[in-house]
Amino acid sequence: MALLSLFFLPGVSYGEAWVVTPSASIAATYDDNASLTTQPHSSSYGEIVTANIKFSRLTDISEVAGQAYIDYTNFNSESELSDQSGNQFLSLYSKYKTELGQWNLDASYLRDSTLRYDFDDLNIDVIQDQARRTTIRLEPSWTQHLSERLRFNIGYAFNDVRYSDESISTSLFDYDQQYLRGSLTRDLSERDSIVGSLRAGLYRAPDNNDAETTSYELVGTYNHAFSEITKGGIGVGLSHRSSSSLSVDEDDNGYLVRMFMSHQTELQRIRVELSHDIRPSGLGEVVEVNKFTLEGSQHLSSQLTGTLQAKAHDSKSLGANTSNDRTYFVVEPALRWNVSPSWYVEAKYRYRRQKYDDLQDSADSNSVYLTLGYSEASLLD
């Protein structure tokens, strides 16, 4: 209840109505290498059933939103890949504006499997066995306008990941990461801004020889709006890392690069990101990651929309253990037909490829999905 009281701030009116959007879907799927292994394997087919509800309430000075999601996966031909426990996700978001500032609070709870596909998860497919995990995330922040063109932001983030007992055999370790960040943004013009940011972080994996990493990052970013529909930015910076465990202590310096470009119209949306970063992992250590991301959508007609997602990342251990260094690539085109305002049919293809540096062979996967879904928003007084 204490957490909920932070979201639903006392004395704040959230408007006259809630917007509630329930949705559900059932998908038939086929995958020729669902566990993405280089070992002999068979193809699998099955179904995925999902149920989801989103809610939000918006006023001139405040916003509150949330989501509850659950799904179940069943592979008929490979029962060990079936996820009988399902995946559950809960999230809450709150925003409150004052005359010169804004308060944000973002929190979520996720209970899922390591075999669940998540486009943004760098730990995806890092192992070929199934283990349950629980992730709790909390991110409060405050933005203060110091002048018409100058604003300051400070925030804290906590991320806790716990694996079930079967993860003992999969080389995964419980970990938590927390960091404190601050940034100063200066609007140079209507189209240009510069940002200076500083972040201090702590990563801990006690079960991996009491592994602990302290990191500091200093980044400068330049953002530019080429037009009302096209924007871009580039950030470069330095990092310092101190790692310790029962067996070794290490200190090193590195660099950070983050770039993006976005283009959005009424009918089209494209976003490209490229980064060199240090990220937490379930392997009991932080890893150095080079990452490329492409996301796009195109309205082909009033009822037909095409989407494309692609991601490639190269992750390297910053310690002595390089057995999990790997290159990972996924591309996912999809076509959605809105049969009616509430019902849709979607066809999707996904290709995955993974290559561990210590192994000669790479693993490939081809999968297809055919989904029937329902979604309809409604107002509650």
**Tally of separate helices:** 1
Overall number of domains: 1
Radius of gyration: 22 Å
> Can you name the CATH architecture?
Beta Barrel
Could you please describe the fold and organization of this structure?
By secondary structure, the protein is an all-beta fold. It has a single domain, classed as Porin (Beta Barrel), CATH 2.40.160. The chain is 2% helix and 67% strand. It has 1 helix and 19 strands. The chain has an 18-stranded antiparallel beta barrel. A hairpin with a 3-residue loop joins strand 2 and strand 3. The longest helix is centred in the first third of the chain and has 6 residues. It is globular, with a radius of gyration of 22 Å. The N terminus is likely disordered.
Core attributes:
about 375 residues; 19 strands; globular
What secondary-structure arrangement, pairings included, does this model have?
Elements lengths: L1 H6 L10 E14 L12 E15 L3 E14 L7 E15 L3 E13 L18 E14 L4 E14 L11 E13 L4 E14 L5 E15 L4 E15 L4 E16 L3 E13 L5 E14 L4 E14 L8 E13 L4 E14 L6 E13 L2 E3 L1
Antiparallel strand pairs: 1-2, 1-18, 1-19, 2-3, 3-4, 4-5, 5-6, 6-7, 7-8, 8-9, 9-10, 10-11, 11-12, 12-13, 13-14, 14-15, 15-16, 16-17, 17-18
